[in-house]
Design brief:
Blueprint: H1 4-41, H2 47-52, H3 62-76, E1 79-84, E2 90-97, H4 98-111, E3 117-126, E4 131-139, E5 142-152, E6 180-189, H5 195-200, E7 207-210, H6 217-226, E8 230-237, H7 258-271, E9 277-282, H8 284-288, H9 290-302, E10 306-309, H10 318-324, E11 329-331, E12 334-335, H11 342-359, E13 361-366, H12 370-381, E14 391-393
Parallel strand pairs: 2-5, 6-7, 6-13, 6-14, 7-8, 8-9, 9-10, 10-11, 12-13
Antiparallel strand pairs: 1-2, 3-4, 4-5
Helix pairs in contact: 3-4, 7-9, 11-12
Length: about 400
């Protein structure tokens, strides 16, 4: 007679692999759904939650579309200004000549399908020599952007004059004031978590410089890429009268060889793979001595990176040497927070704007101090950094020489 217990144990033994397989499939499916859901929450494309299971309550990430829109407008060389309101809508004022209007709107309509978006013309007003159009863009059926587009007349051929009625007249040449471009670089990123989220909340193009060996360097570098900001490697270098706080093998000293510097840069690029350029952290000793900075610039050129001289000393020769070595380069004009003081930072922003209007462009370096970020935010809100004031905020790489 068969033992019932033995029979049950055999059945359990046969079912055990099947149960393990079902459990494995369930865990794998839940993992895929979770990852897709997290991507969807961040505004990324999700086959499951965008096409198959259409969730309500979450929209496509506006920042991605807004980033592409800014790049398109910048490439079209039209005047524009924008801000982000408390209801979560972007507002744009765009001025475009009549001969560019159709082409510009066609590019915009071509962009929108990638974001499940559509464009809707809601109002138009004819003025004396221009037309105003109000467009609404919807991403995933939600209002994302309000675009006030002003179409200005292009150049028209003057009608032929009657020779007999022609009279001498004064010719007035209109003065065109060019837009002054400014770039903000925020240094010392990586020592604190979630700093890049704070920077992204300013809703302007920011260049963010990460110290490679800082505790949160990798996670903050990923955030820079996800939030469509611009990344730099903030490379620690020896100064004249202070000790660097990083480990000796992580900063460039007067004893570093070209091989040492190349190894540091490769390691830094592994941490911040999206970085296209380098600026110096401290480094008054290295940047002021040609025989030392030349090795740094050689390593930077080998990595096909650009270099921004932080100008931590007035004796720096780094920018001039980079130009001589045919490296794309730039230098800092203004420090926003040589003192951690809100009023001081506002004064420095005013100096930055004045300098940009004088020279066409200017670069500021600051740090993620609350007083610094508040000063930038209030300067934006007050209109001091608006396109209608002939000022445009751009990534630092836009100003490279």
């Amino acid at each position: 007679m068969t033992n019932p217990k033995r029979k049950l144990s055999k059945r359990a033994a046969r079912q055990s692999p099947l149960l393990l397989f079902v459990l494995f499939v369930f865990i794998a499916l839940m993992t895929v759904l979770t990852l897709e859901y997290l991507d969807y929450r961040q505004g990324k494309y999700s086959l499951i939650f965008t096409r198959i299971i259409k969730l309500k309550g979450f929209s496509v990430d506006q920042r991605h579309f807004n980033h592409d829109l800014l790049r398109m407008l910048d490439g079209a060389h039209v005047d524009f200004n924008w801000f982000y309101d408390r209801q979560g809508t972007y507002h744009f004022k765009i001025d475009t000549p009549a001969d560019q209007f159709t082409r510009l709107m066609a590019k915009l309509e071509k962009m929108l399908p990638r974001f499940s978006g559509r464009l809707e013309l809601t109002e138009s007003h004819r003025l004396q020599d221009r037309t105003l159009y109000l467009y609404k863009t919807y991403l995933d059926k939600r209002l994302s952007h309000l675009l006030l587009v002003e179409k200005t007349p292009g150049e028209k051929a003057a009608p032929p004059e009657n020779v007999e009625e022609r009279a001498p007249r004064e010719i007035t040449v209109p003065t065109v004031v060019p837009i002054a471009k400014i770039a903000f670089i925020i240094d010392d990123i990586g020592y604190r978590d979630r700093v890049v989220d704070e920077l992204a909340s300013l809703h302007i193009p920011l260049t963010v410089s990460v110290i490679p060996d800082a505790p949160f360097a990798r996670s903050e570098a990923r955030k820079i890429q996800e939030l469509k900001l611009e990344a730099l490697i903030h490379l620690p270098m020896e100064s004249k009268n202070s000790t660097n706080h990083t480990a000796a093998e992580e900063w460039i000293s007067s004893r570093s060889s070209l091989e040492d510097i190349s190894r540091m840069l490769k390691k830094a690029r592994a941490v911040i793979p999206w970085a296209r350029g380098v600026n110096n952290h401290m480094g008054s000793l290295i940047t002021s001595r040609p025989e030392l900075i030349v090795k740094v610039l050689q390593a930077i050129k080998q990595e096909n990176l650009f270099f921004i001289d932080s100008r931590t000393t007035s004796e720096s020769v780094a920018y001039e040497m980079a130009k001589g070595m045919k490296i794309k380069t730039l230098f800092r004009d203004v420090f926003l927070d040589d003192r951690q003081d809100y009023n001081r930072s506002r004064e420095q922003i005013n100096s930055l704007v004045n300098l940009a209007r004088k020279n066409g462009q200017a670069v500021a370096i600051g740090h993620p101090f609350p007083s610094t970020l508040a000063a930038i935010r209030d300067a934006i809100a007050s209109g001091d950094l608006a396109t209608d004031q002939r000022v445009a905020i751009v990534f630092a790489s836009t100003l490279l020489e």
